[in-house]
Amino acid sequence: MDIVLPNAKGEVDCIFGGGLRNEMQHVEVALALAASPRLLLMDEPTAGMAPGERTALMSLVVTLVRGRRMTVLFTEHSMDVVFGFAERVLVLSRGRLI
After folding, report:
1. Rounded distance between C-alpha atoms, residue 14 and residue 30, angstroms
2. Burial class (CB in 10 A: 0-12, 13-18, 19+), 90
3. DSSP 32-82
4. pTM for the full predicted model
5. What is residue 49's predicted lDDT score, i.e. its pLDDT?
6. What CA–CA distances, in Å, run from 67 to 19, 36, 48, 59, 91?
7. Cα 49 from chain centroid (whole Å)
8. What is the distance between the terminal CA atoms of the chain, rounded to a whole angstrom?
9. Is 86 helix (H, G, I), strand (E, B) or coil?
């Protein structure tokens, strides 16, 4: 089953499906974006994914949110994701900003 996600102009800019691994994360992103939020909160969106899958998912998220002029706040333990996709980084240790 494919999930088609149109952009703000009604043009299709993303289709989820076609045998993607970790389809649940893709479905969750599609559902979150369907409401056209201004802020997308993501709690460890790449948990349990292989490195290539992490990069693919985050690249997709970047493409989709830039086209919609959205802000994304995500928590992540994978430093390759953090340094590869975050524009700003805040680090917490024991609940305190360091």
Report:
1. 9
2. exposed
3. HHHT--SEEEEESTTTT--HHHHHHHHHHHHHHHHHHT-EEEEE-S-HHHH
4. 0.70
5. 82
6. 25, 11, 27, 12, 28
7. 13
8. 44
9. coil
Q: Whose structure tokens read 């970047």?
A: 62
| Beta carbons of 22 and 57 less than 8 angstroms apart | yes
Identify the three-state secondary structure at position 7: coil
**Residue type for position 46:** T
Backbone angles phi, psi at 72, to 5 degrees: -120, 130
What is the tens place of the pLDDT at every residue in 38-91?
999 999 888 888 888 888 888 888 888 888 888 999 999 999 999 999 999 999
